[in-house]
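Priority: medium. Attachment 1 of 2:
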């Protein structure tokens, strides 16, 4: 009985091993065939891709030429047009600055207006602003407004200051709604600047007072009093006094 069990055990074991070997052989053949098939597919794909490149070679060459032309045009613009123009603008605005320093305001204005008219770059931006300042001092508010409208109000100092100047021009032209809009922009650009923001708010409040919008005026002074409590002491401006006046006129 034990012999039969052993024989059966060895027989089963040998049969299992044989089946495993047969399975392994079959898998190896399949893997080899799969590898060959995959290799053939890769070669075929590469051949097809190469053929496509060859067939479209003409179009690819034209595309490369087009890209090269665009790059050359960009480089040509930078070194052939933009940089020389920038240098010319800098030279001309430098001459206008010298005229201004020497007290020749009219000559300086001519220089700034020339740069502003001929160029469209950073020196031209500054030329617009400088021309506007001189024109404002001369009382030529309409001309100053045109320059300020062409000036890009960027930055947290020059940007809000330019909009404040625009508001001042509109006040002198008695265009109060446009003045308030300019002051609002100046206040926004000033952000949390504790000197600029309340100063522009006071300008806006002054216009609202002229329009007899006393409640709105009072609201601005209240904001200054709450948000910038030290402003009155630092500048000598009696915020609380004007707040009380606006509230009284508003019937509060």
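Attachment 2 of 2:
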């Amino acid at each position: 009985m034990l012999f039969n069990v052993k024989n059966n055990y060895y027989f089963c074991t040998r049969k299992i091993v044989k089946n495993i070997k047969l399975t392994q052989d079959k898998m190896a053949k399949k893997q080899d065939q799969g590898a060959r098939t995959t290799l053939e597919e890769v070669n075929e794909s590469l051949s097809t891709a190469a053929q496509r490149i060859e067939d479209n070679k003409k179009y690819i060459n034209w595309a490369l030429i087009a890209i090269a032309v665009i790059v050359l045009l960009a480089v040509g613009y930078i070194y052939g047009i933009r940089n020389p123009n920038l240098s010319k603008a800098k030279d001309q605005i430098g001459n206008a600055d010298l005229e201004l320093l020497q007290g020749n305001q009219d000559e300086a204005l001519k220089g700034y207006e020339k740069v502003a008219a001929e160029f469209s770059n950073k020196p031209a931006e500054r030329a617009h602003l400088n021309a506007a300042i001189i024109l404002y001092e001369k009382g030529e508010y309409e001309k100053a407004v045109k320059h300020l409208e062409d000036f890009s109000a960027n930055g947290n100092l020059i940007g809000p200051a330019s909009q404040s100047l625009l508001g001042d021009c509109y006040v002198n032209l008695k265009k109060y709604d446009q003045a308030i809009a300019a002051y609002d922009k100046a206040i926004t650009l000033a952000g949390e600047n504790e000197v600029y923001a309340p100063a522009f708010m006071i300008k806006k409040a002054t216009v609202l007072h002229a329009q007899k919008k006393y409640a709105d005026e009072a609201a601005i002074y209240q904001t200054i009093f709450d948000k910038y409590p030290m402003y009155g002491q630092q500048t000598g401006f009696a915020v609380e006094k004007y707040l009380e006046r606006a509230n009284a006129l508003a019937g509060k």
